Every structure is written in C-alpha cells, then in structure tokens.
Amino acid sequence: MDFDRPVALIMHAVLDFLPDHTNPYGIVSRLLEPLAPGSYLSLTHCTSDFAPEAWGAVIDTYERRGIQAQARTKTEVLRFFRGLELVDPGLVVAHRWRPEPASGPSLVTDTQVSMYAGLARRSAGRERAGMGA
Question: Which CATH class is domain 8-121?
Fold first, then answer.
C-alpha cells in the first residue's frame, strides 16, 4: 500500500465489537495516522439511540456467548471522525445516507435500522486532532 496516496479505511460493522476498554478511538486514530491527506474513513456502527432496551438485550446476548460488543450514541460515533471533514449528509442512520428514490427511508424506520453510517475525508494540510485514549 502506498501511504503517500489517498486510500479509504473502511470500518463497517467493526467498531461495534470494540468496547470502550479496548480504546477504539485510539485504534482508529492509529490506523488513520499514516494515511495521506485526501484519504477517507467510512464506518457504520450500531446504536441504541432508538431502542435502548432492545439493544441492551442484544449486547447481553453477545456477551453471554463470549463476544464483546457495544452500541454507541450518535455523539459517541461522531467522535471517531474527530479532525476529519464529514461528507454530506454527515453521520446519519444508514438507510438515510444518500438513498435511491423509492428505497430505504420509506421502507424501514430508524428503529429497525439502528445503525449510523458516515464518511469523512482527511484534509490536505491539516493535522489530525487527537482522539484521545
């Protein structure tokens, strides 16, 4: 991989399985560090914003089977994009990210989807802001 040229770091359905104690923000920061300006971060993440009790049960089910998982709020997911420029429409429920006519938003609800999606670009000439530990 040529880190002197822009690339895309795609983290779909990955960060859900990195609870806070594993320092997911630090991991994403370290993965973005060597990427050239103009590179992108694309991610999806489950959320309990719309159905907290249901997602609590989902997380409990994973954990009973030995799988670490964590749903995050929109504010918590936005933190993964710190120091990057979000691409329009920003961080939204996945079926609302540039839907085709007569698709997604009219067929399912935000509660049914319960997943945020976003894409952000690393600017040329801007230093990355630290995401913290």
Answer: alpha beta
DSSP state for residue 55 in the 8-state scheme:
H
Query: What's this model's pTM, rounded to 2 decimal places?
Result: 0.88
Q: Residue 84 in 3-state DSSP?
A: coil
- Please enumerate in sequence order all residues whose Cβ is within 8 A of that of 76, keeping only pairs 6 or more positions apart, or say none: none
Q: Are 30 and 109 in contact (CB under 8 A)?
A: no
Closest C-alpha to 13, from 40, 43, 54, 38: 43
Alpha-carbon distances of 37 from 42, 74, 103, 124, 127, rounded to whole Å: 15, 25, 34, 5, 9
Tell me if 117 sits within 8 A of 43, measured CB to CB.
Answer: yes
Rg (CA), the chain: 16
**Per-residue pLDDT tens digits for 38-84:** 999 999 999 999 999 999 999 999 999 999 999 999 999 999 999 99
Q: Which residue has the tokens 């249901």?
A: 54
CA distance 95 to 82: 23
Strands 115-121 and 40-46: antiparallel
Can you give the residue ranges of every domain in the chain? 8-121
